[in-house]
């Protein structure tokens, strides 16, 4: 066989390789198309898995100490307790919100009349920014905009219905994931050797602790922020303090920007009420931001997630770009889980690319290089 024939044989690609490559490309395209079509369901499943991982240790504890091994009863008790806690929180805020909503309805007509006449704090503010003049000069545009609000209203109703369906679906998925979790985990780990199965179990346990710690810590920080905001607004005499404090507590759940959004809204409400109240609220949020960023978050998150600020910032930016507000909420625990997995891989490999590093063309292990050969 000549050299040309040999080169041609080497350069010829087998038909099986070509078909395999085409099949992989088609399979990738189908997978991407499937993901885009069921993106909403996948997001619901991810959120449900997030809460299932967070509640899994709680259900395990209740199963061991309360229900004496009955998993179904333990899961039911924990989820009922979650519903009771959420209902209690809503009830705590429902009464003051209803009262303040009634006050808003009663005070709205005189506020509008004062604003049109340029009287009161709202009227003074509108006069300073020339808002009344702008409204008078653009009445036709405002009327057209108000006329077109009927169409988006249908979208709002549909969004509300989707939110209800999503909430119920996530709750059911999380319940089933926690209930059937031990069977799925044991069945999956049975596919691996005992030593590797134990390692996977240990890593997943650390990941669950990261998620649980993040949720509990974030909720605690938000509750503290809401209570302190309510106290400051109440002392400053700002109306609708409960409604504003609830908004601040909810937005504080969003990492990085949430507290700032709540602070801006509360400060504007303070300045609308009076200048001294606005200054007091502004000073409070400046001081509280320092307290939260340098004391509360490090103290709470350092024992659970253990992420440095640069990693947190990068994780949130990437997650927001991928999944919006939902990504921002899940960014820190997701980054913590990735950190746990990478740390385990590094510790298992001990920083080496292979379990047994080799030297030389004969692939002699380092720990055996230079040793005298033993007689057989």
UniProtKB/TrEMBL annotation:
Keyword Isomerase applies: no
InterPro entries: AI-2E-like (IPR002549)
Domain of life per record: Bacteria
Region described as Disordered: 352-376
Transmembrane segments: 17-35, 41-62, 74-98, 156-178, 211-232, 238-257, 264-289, 309-342
Keyword Mitochondrion: no
Principal location class: membrane
Keywords: Cell membrane, Membrane, Transmembrane, Transmembrane helix, Transport
Pfam family, one: AI-2E_transport
Membrane topology label: Multi-pass membrane protein
Subcellular location: Cell membrane
Similarity remark: Belongs to the autoinducer-2 exporter (AI-2E) (TC 2.A.86) family.
Protein name: AI-2E family transporter
Species: Pseudonocardia xinjiangensis
């Amino acid at each position: 066989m000549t050299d040309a024939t040999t080169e041609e044989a080497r350069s010829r690609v087998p038909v099986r390789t070509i078909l395999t490559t085409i099949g992989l490309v088609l399979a990738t395209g189908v997978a991407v198309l499937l993901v885009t079509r069921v993106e909403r369901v996948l997001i619901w499943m991810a959120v449900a898995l997030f809460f299932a991982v967070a509640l899994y240790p709680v259900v395990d504890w209740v199963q061991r100490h309360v229900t004496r091994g009955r998993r179904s009863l333990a899961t039911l008790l924990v989820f009922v307790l979650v519903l009771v806690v959420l209902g209690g929180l809503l009830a705590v805020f429902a009464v003051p919100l209803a009262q303040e909503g009634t006050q808003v309805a009663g005070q709205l007509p005189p506020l509008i009349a004062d604003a049109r006449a340029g009287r009161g704090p709202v009227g003074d503010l509108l006069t300073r920014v020339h808002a009344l003049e702008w409204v008078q000069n653009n009445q036709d545009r405002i009327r057209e905009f108000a006329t077109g609000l009927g169409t988006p209203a249908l979208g709002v109703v549909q969004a509300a219905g989707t939110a209800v369906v999503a909430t119920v679906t996530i709750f059911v998925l999380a319940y089933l994931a926690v209930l059937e979790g031990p069977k799925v985990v044991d069945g999956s780990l049975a596919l691996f050797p005992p030593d590797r199965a134990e390692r996977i179990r240990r890593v997943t346990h650390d990941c669950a602790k990261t998620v649980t710690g993040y949720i509990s810590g974030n909720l605690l920080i938000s509750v503290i922020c809401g209570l302190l905001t309510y106290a400051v607004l109440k002392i400053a005499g700002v109306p609708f303090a409960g409604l504003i404090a609830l908004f601040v507590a909810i937005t504080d759940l969003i990492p990085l920007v949430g507290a700032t959004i709540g602070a801006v809204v509360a400060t504007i409400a303070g300045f609308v009420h009076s200048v001294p109240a606005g200054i007091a609220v502004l000073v409070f949020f400046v001081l509280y931001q320092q307290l939260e960023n340098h004391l509360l978050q490090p103290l709470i998150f350092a024992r659970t997630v253990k992420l440095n600020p640069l990693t947190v910032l990068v994780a949130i930016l990437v997650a927001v770009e991928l999944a919006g507000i939902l990504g921002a909420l899940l960014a820190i625990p997701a980054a913590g889980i990735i950190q746990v997995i990478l740390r385990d891989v590094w510790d298992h490999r001990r920083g080496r690319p292979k379990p047994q590093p080799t030297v030389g063309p004969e692939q002699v292990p380092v720990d055996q290089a230079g040793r005298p050969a033993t007689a057989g």
